[in-house]
Amino acid sequence: MDNSSKKRAVLDKIAVGLSGLCLLHCLLLPFAVAVLPFIGQLDNDHLHAEMLIFVIPVSVVALAVGFRRHGRISVILSGATGLAILIIGALIVHDLYGLLADRAMTVAGSFVLAFTHYQNFRLAKKDLLSIPQ
C-alpha cells in the first residue's frame, strides 16, 4: 500500500468515525431532551440508585443475548457480580457508609460490568464468525 492509499484509508476511517458520531448525536439528542424532565425529578445526591432502573434491564438483556450465542456461564457470573456490586453500593452501602463509599462501589461495579459487556460482545462476535455459512 503506497503512501497516498494509507492517507486515504486514514481519512476514510476518520470520516466513518465522524459520521458515526453524527448519527449518535442525531439519535441520542431527542432521547436526551425527552429524559431531561425525568432526570430533574431525581434526587441529585443519589443518582446511582435511579440509574439502576436503566442499567439492570439493559445488562440482563445484553448478557442473555450474548450467552445464547457463546454459552459461557462465566460471563453471566461476572455480569451478576458487577450488578450485585452496583446494587449493594447504591441501596445498602450508600445508607450505611455514605456517598463516598457508594461511589467507590459504583466505580468497582461499573468496571466489572463494563469488562463483562466487552467480553460478552467479543465472545458473541467470535461465535458468530465461526458459524459455517
Descriptive labels:
single chain, 133 residues, mainly alpha, 2 domains, 4 helices, 0% strand, extended
Overview in brief:
The chain has 133 residues and is mainly α.
Mind explaining what this structure looks like?
It is built from four helices and no strands. With 133 residues, it is mainly α. The protein folds into two domains: 1-41; 42-128, no CATH class. Helix 2 runs parallel beside helix 4. The longest helix is centred in the first third of the chain and has 39 residues, at 3-41.
Radius of gyration: 20 Å
**How many strand units?**
0
Strand content: under 5%
Mean pLDDT: 80
The percentage helix is over 70%
Principal-axis shape equals extended
- Low-confidence runs of at least 5 consecutive residues: none
Helix segment count?
4
What is the distance, rounded to the nearest whole angstrom, between the alpha carbons of the first and last residues? 31 Å
Give the SSE string. Answer: HHHH
The number of domains is: 2
Oligomer: single chain
| Structural class computed from helices and strand pairing | mainly alpha
The largest sheet is:
none
